[in-house]
Amino acid sequence: MKIFVVNAGSSSLKYQLIDMETETVLAKGLCERIGTSGAITHKAADGRVYTADTPMPTHTEAFEAVVYAMTESPAKVIDSFDEISAIGHRIVQGGAVFSGSCLVTPKVIEQIEELGAMAPLHNPAHVLAIRACIKTFGEKIPQAVVFDTSFHQTMEPKVYMYALPYEYYEKYGIRKYGAHGTSHRFVSHRVADLEGKDIKDLKIIVCHIGNGASITAVKDGVCFDTSMGFTPLDGFMMGTRSGTIDPSALTYIAEKESMNAAAVNEMCNHRSGMLGISGVSNDNRDVCKAADEGNERAKLAVDMQRYQILKFVGSYVAAMNGVDAIAFTAGIGENDADLRSNVCANLTYLGVTIDEEKNHIRGEEVKISGSDSKVSVYVIPTNEELAIARDTLALIS
Ligand code: ADP
After folding, report:
1. Are residues 63 and 133 in contact, defined by beta-carbon separation less than 8 angstroms?
2. Half-sphere exposure of 383 (CA within 13 A, CB side)
3. 280 lines ligand 1 (CB under 6 A)
4. In whole angstroms, what is the distance from residue 200 CA to residue 45 CA?
5. Around Cβ 85, how many Cβ atoms within 10 Å?
6. Distance between CA 287 and CA 279 in Å, rounded?
7. Residues annotated as catalytic (active site), given as ranges
């Protein structure tokens, strides 16, 4: 049984072909510059690579290029798409409409499209990809959609509501939705497996720290709270995103700089965070290197991000009245031993200890807490594609 996982953006399309018997990746690839020129990079698991510049005016031509790469190119991995049991799509925004993954129907496509107002960069692109898949593969391959937001649909109103006039919640659905839910779900369940316990009996904090970053509190096996909000701008500072700030600071800047709402949005999403503070880069490795070399603003950016992570972890310990396990995942969480060590050094009040030798790893699944630690601390590489493939398989079974 093979599942094809699609993560489509407006000008790009990432994909993986996963063998579900072994849960291994058979091939993965990326189509870029859809809508302008078009290029594909396709990698088979055995190391064969196929690349080509090929016109991709729409997502349909991108899928045609993928079919060629998978079935005919020198890096082919299957004879025909008939071997594929289903297609699973990553969808960024499911709003309050989707509390779980589901099979694609005309109504589902319509609903994802309607939610595009809350994710204008993502949902319209997902819909284009789903329609292109239907055009390319017909109705014979079932398609499923897996939402970044659905894991967070278990939050209670007291957690997801903003203290704004209630009418805006009613009129526009203004509330916290969260993001990275597929990753938080995957990692929290993996923590429970590694702890050898039912996830319902654990209080878990998952720190998904990449260029985009969020922290989720998992209690009774479901999401209790999460740091991202109405959009993925909320929470703690990220590569280019500000995270939570006083809205009055924004209205003040907007007035002083004659910025409209779109300009403020652009500043907070693309010119803030690690990049905005350091002036060096949004990339954690570059900022850490500059900090090590004595760049004061880079050092400030690193210190700020770690402090903000610590505050979210602490607030979720308080909100859940305790924590049994903390997990680090995503680009920075999986690779930056110094950040993990620094954050955990400030959790001694919880009885957290770190085994620095075990912590000295990158991108491996390891329990890094000391044998005397009262809280288990893990590094768990996230695997959103596998989670999407598992949901897709479950839906067609
Ligand atoms: P996203 O999926 O949100 O784009 P990723 O999860 O891929 O982000 O994480 C990217 C971040 O991970 C970058 O800031 C990068 O610098 C950081 N990163 C990757 N490898 C390392 C490493 N070895 N040490 C420190 N940071 C790393």
Report:
1. yes
2. 18
3. no
4. 36
5. 16
6. 9
7. 148
> Beta strand pairing status for 84-91 and 2-8?
parallel
Please report the atom of ligand 1 found closest to the CA of residue 382. 6
pLDDT in tens, 82-117: 999 999 999 999 999 999 999 999 999 999 999 998
DSSP, res 369: B
> Is the CB of 332 inside a 6 Å radius of any atom of ligand 1?
yes
pLDDT band at 203 (very low <50, low <70, confident <90, very high): very high
How many CB atoms sit inside 10 A of residue 162's CB?
Answer: 14
Give the mean pLDDT of 192-220. 97
pLDDT of residue 62: 95
Is there an atom of ligand 1 within 6 Å of 9 CB? no
User: Residues 125-136: pLDDT tens digits?
Assistant: 999 999 999 999
- How far is residue 120's CA from residue 143's CA, in Å, rounded to a whole number? 22
Establish how many alpha carbons lie within 13 A of residue 194's alpha carbon, considering only the half-sphere containing its beta carbon.
20
Angle between helix axes 59-71 and 123-137 (nearest 10 degrees) is 50
Rounded (10°) angle between helices 247-257 and 261-270 = 120
Q: How far is the CA of 378 from the centre of ligand 1 (A)?
A: 17
**Residue 233 Cα, ligand 1 centroid: separation in angstroms?**
18
Give residue 241's pLDDT: 95
Residue 382 three-state SS = coil
The whole-number pLDDT of residue 376 equals: 98
Write the DSSP symbol of residue 2: E
**Whole-number Å distance between alpha carbons of 100 and 147:** 7
pLDDT of residue 246: 97
DSSP E strand stretches across the chain: 2-8, 13-19, 24-32, 39-44, 49-53, 84-91, 102-103, 143-147, 203-209, 213-219, 222-226, 325-329, 366-367, 376-379
Rounded to whole angstroms, the Cα distance separating 70 from 45 reads: 12
